[in-house]
Amino acid sequence: MSNRDGVDTVPEGKKRRPIRRTRPSAQRGAGRAKGAPAAPRFAKPLTPGAVLGWTALSAIVPGAAHLRAGHRRTGLVLVSVYAVLLLGALAYGLSVAGDLSNVAGLAGDGAMLAVVIGASVLALAWFALLVTSYVALGPNKLPQQGQILTGIVVGLLCVTVMSPFALAANSVLTVRDAVGAIFPSEPDSDNPAVAQNPEDPWDGKERVNFLLIGGDAAGNRTGVRTDSMNVASVDLKTGTTVLFSLPRNLQHVRFPPSSPLHKQFPNGFMAELPNGGLLNEVWQYATDNPQLMGGRNKGPRALMDAIGYTLNLKIDYYMLMNMYGFADLVDAIGGLRIRVEQDVKWGGLYGTAGVIKAGERKLTGEQALWYGRSRVGSDDFSRMSRQRCVIGAFAQQATPTVILTRFNKIAGAAKRLAQTNIPRHLVQPLVELAVKVKGAKITSLQFVPPEFYSGRPDWAKIRTATKKAINDSLRPARQAQTAGVSASPSVTASRTRTVTPQRPTQTPTRNSQRAGAKGLDELCGL
């Protein structure tokens, strides 16, 4: 109402209603869909480059693109979840780096399968994250060319982001396949089956003895000659290890009464007299005579029996490494750096195939193989010394970084060269034991002249020295060295005070090594 002066009035008893002032329709945001998130207040229109940049940033910081697009709640949730997962992964990585025993948990078949599934899930999750980040940025508002360009680039980005997870899953599958090919799922028929007890996988043993064999099987050679034979006697509690090296030309080894070959050779292995009966012939003889062994493929059992009886140790498991496959393994880690003391010719009787020159060398797989095997101008004991240099160089230079960067090549080469009777359920305990051995004391004893003659061995002296080396290995390092056994895997024979009861016959090959034992670092220049 208004009075006669034109002034609005309000009837008595009523309140004046506030006048609502509205903004022009252009300022009201007309046309915005109901419930759609409001655009950032000061955000500029996104260009194709900005869309790609924010999408790529989301691959590193999930939620960044959602925050830019105005989806604050979703973006904050993604950032928070990612931060928690990243901190958890970092904490786990630091714990593994601080204690290598944690890695053993990943050696089980179930753990490897879980890693493959986890990597696949993460790959799909990152793919979905990039796609949703891209969609949240509204690429449909771009020009048609911008939409096509950003779509192609984001597709390539998705493939790139998924590749590390796919590589991880493929690497684990490669290891799983290699483990399945090397380690048998069924127990060795010659070993009594034991119940699988995760709390005590080694069935109450205090020590486990592994026979490590280097064989020379090849496509152009018949059978297997075990040219390198070492026994690793490992204390399960501490990982303390003693390595016993037996020469290939050790003659007339005995077999225990339980062995089928004991009756055939009651006075020692004499398969090829007058100069035969060498230790490296036992495997092939047992394989060639299944009627004597009571079955086929009994070469490993015969050699384990002979070496175990020689050392008075029970050999629990063996592993055969094909020396020609070993060359592939050396190539897989990128070669071996070794100091060659003098020129080594190889090939045939006169070394016509090539020469490995003296000096600091990085050997290929083929060169490393022949460096350890060449007989040209050499003898068996010098070869044993060079073989230990190759083994020591490989153990030192196959670092975790090298293994990770060449993982698939190493796994493929290992699958081709290894044979063992270690059952598959012991793979994880074996990795745990290897971690212990890596940080424990290792001593070495070689049964070579002048302390031990292979032509006419003193079996009692060998057994006494074996027992003494094991007992000394359990003492503190200083006491063990005083007793004559070195605390390094590189030292050859320990000094034993046992007097030889009789003069031995001439060994089949002479020992031309210089007097005095040396460590691998000094001898091989590692």
Short description:
The protein has 526 residues and is an alpha+beta fold. The chain has helices spanning 48-60, 64-69, 72-98, 109-136, 144-182, 260-264, 282-288, 290-293, 299-311, 323-332, 365-373, 380-397, 400-405, 407-417, 427-438, 459-473, 477-482, 520-524, and strands spanning 207-215, 226-235, 241-246, 317-322, 336-340, 344-346, 354-356, 359-363, 418-420, 442-446.
Strand order of the largest sheet: 9-4-1-2-3-10
- What order do the SSEs take from the amino end to the carboxyl end, as H and E? HHHHHEEEHHHHEHEEEEHHHHEHEHHH
Secondary-structure class: alpha+beta
Determine the N-to-C terminus distance.
108 Å
CATH topology of the largest domain: Aminopeptidase
Q: So how many helices? A: 18
Strand content: 5-15%
Shape, per Cα inertia axes: elongated
Q: CATH H-level name of the largest domain... which superfamily?
A: LCP protein
Rg on CA atoms, Å = 36 Å
